[in-house]
Amino acid sequence: MTTAVTSDHEVPMFLRSAGNDIFAIHTRAVDDRRRGEGIVLLQGGNWVTSIGRNRMWVDMARELAADGYDVIRFDYRGVGESGGTTKLYRLDSPFVDDVAAAAGALRAAGCERLVLVGTCFGARAALAAARIEGVAAVALFSTPIFDREMERLATRSVGTLARRKLRIRSLRSLVDPKRWSLLTRIVKKKARQAVRRVRGGSGAPTDDVDVSPQFLKQIQAAVDGGVRVLLAYGNADEYWRDFVRTREGRLGRILDRAGPQVEVREMPGFLHGLHTAAAQDAVLAELARWSVSAS
Amino acid sequence: MRGELAARVDESSGVRDEVRFVGPPGDRLITVLSRALATPVGGTLVCSPMGNDFVRVYRHELRLGHALAARGWSTLRFHYRGTGNSDGVEADVDYDSLVGDVLAAGGAVQEHAGVGVDLLVGTRLSGLVAAAASGPLRASRLVLVDPPLDGRSYFREAWRAEKVQTITTDAASSDPAGELRDAGQTMVFGITVHRRLHDSVVHRRLEDEVTGERLQILWVQLVEHDTTKREAEILDAWAAAGHDVTVVRLPRPQAWWTPPEGRESIGEALSDTIATWAAGP
Q1: Which H or E run contains B249?
Q2: Distance CA B255, CA B53 (A)
Q3: Where does A23-138 have alpha helices with state H?
Q4: Which of A50, A17, A283 is nearest to B79 (CA)?
Q5: Mode of pairing for the β-strands spanning B73-78 and B244-249
């Protein structure tokens, strides 16, 4: 029988990171089950707090603590109770300092092995922080493999893009000059791909020329460092299609060489954004299956 | 772990925020007290909205706490039990538990700031809740930010928003009201709505919930419009009860119930308006 964990096991704290006070909550492992392992939970970007939809991260922290893990969840800089401001979430620069501060707090609490669990932006933050001292595993859900929307859209076929743009909502969005600018850049990029194809280069959407160099470098570094990696996607998500489309390139070669150290999981339905209770439950179940234990 | 305190000083305002859990073990609220910069003129309790609305206004309410503290109001924000970082189970939340939490948080203002609650701020559904707590807390001022005029319209907005979403995203059609009735819960934009909360709120009307006496009420509406018949009825009822009501319209249309897209759009005008009004006579 597991002990129900409540706020009685929790300590609120502010951590210093890059000149900001980062608000975090440390959920301490139930004493008689304590493993000496710590987990950092990393939500997506978009100015959401570490509570999560339906308090998903709160429940997850408390469930994991009942199972013997020390867990930290925190608000990124400029979000929730944390200090600072955030104008933009850059996938190629995902607040590693904040993750390091949380990891440091867990190490200070006696956790020698750490697992980073993230979704979307949080997954990129986890991957970028995978070489932080003590990190033994990273569980990445709905990880974007492009740094910018333009790069992602440029891998779509012209027909797919046209269908998307012909939706009423999309047409309405074209009133926005920034959207026009984005569309223009995509069209130019598609034209360059076409020219490359005509000249005999690949130019096809399946090449990995646009996959985030940071992502490739970081996943290679994680593998080289012996860090276990879980890459999980909902198969209805666009990010899954991105992943499949680019897997034939360098990304696939890295994963193939890594063998069982990197596990790729295709999960049914939509996962990105955790918009449904089913998606929220699926992440919890997948973590349990994969075993967040780094040992 | 009881009594653990986390504190920081906000760089731009100089206000000290103190985060602590309060209440009995296993049933605690998380609270954030923004201490008045000088000798406090009074205490403020900020009652946050629910679900995605909570996420939407989170940063605005933090800024409001700092703006009020800078003007001498020790201001406490908190998460209801069953929500946010507090204890409790979401399915157990109902109108009475919400009002009970406001009263408990009011006790925390007295305990940790040494002042009573003079000013209550409630956004959306918490406008009704704050109004209901205004009497027991002996508050003299009440701020209502875009409150629903009644419980029924509050949930009707949710069902409508969910249906619009299914149309615009080609998702399977949904019947959240029917699902709530049949299954006891439904999902609105990734947030579970439980029948217990729904049933305890749906028959309530804004004008009936104010329990305080001769209150100064600031009613902030975020959409520019002419006063509707229902709003006029509410204003008349409050005037007859001796309340002094000010209506302010700050056009910042919010897609309530939906998850925020990008940075919160409520802006600083709202926190400045409330803080300025609170500083008035």
Answers
A1: strand B244-249
A2: 9
A3: 56-66, 96-108, 121-128
A4: A50
A5: unpaired
Of B279, B97, B111, B93, the C-alpha closest to B197 is B93
Q: Tell me: the pLDDT tens digits for A166-224?
A: 555 555 555 555 556 656 656 666 666 666 666 655 444 444 457 899 999 999 999 99
Residue B239 forms contact with A (CB below 8 Å): no
Judged by phi (left if over 0) then psi (alpha if -120 to 50, else beta), residue B26 lies in left
Q: Report the residue of chain B nearest A20, measured CA to CA.
A: B11
Side-chain half-sphere CA neighbours of A50 within 13 A: 30
Distance from CA of B21 to the nearest CA of A (A): 7
Other C-beta atoms lying within 10 Å of the C-beta of residue A107: 16
A81 contacts chain B (CB < 8 A): yes
ipTM of this complex prediction, to 2 decimal places:
0.94
CB interface of B with A, residues 104-143, below 8 Å? none
What confidence score (pLDDT) does residue B65 get?
A: 97
Judged against a pLDDT cut of 80, whether residue A151 lies above it is answered with no
Comparing A227-241, B65-79, B176-190, B248-262, the range with the smallest average pLDDT is B248-262
- What is the predicted pLDDT for the residue at A87? 82
Distance from CA of B58 to the nearest CA of A (A): 6
Are the beta carbons of B215 and B127 closer than 8 angstroms?
no
Please tell me the distance from the alpha carbon of residue B195 to that of residue B93, in angstroms, as a whole number: 10
Stated pTM of the model: 0.89
In whole angstroms, what is the distance from residue A227 CA to residue A139 CA?
10
Cα→Cα distances A86→A20, A47, A150, B263, Å: 11, 8, 21, 9
Instruction: Give yes or no for residue B257 having a pLDDT over 50.
Output: yes
Q: Which residues fall within 8 angstroms of residue A133, CB to CB, at 6 or more apart?
A: A103, A107
The model's pLDDT over A74-96, given as tens digits with 9 standing for 90+, comes to: 999 999 999 998 888 889 889 99
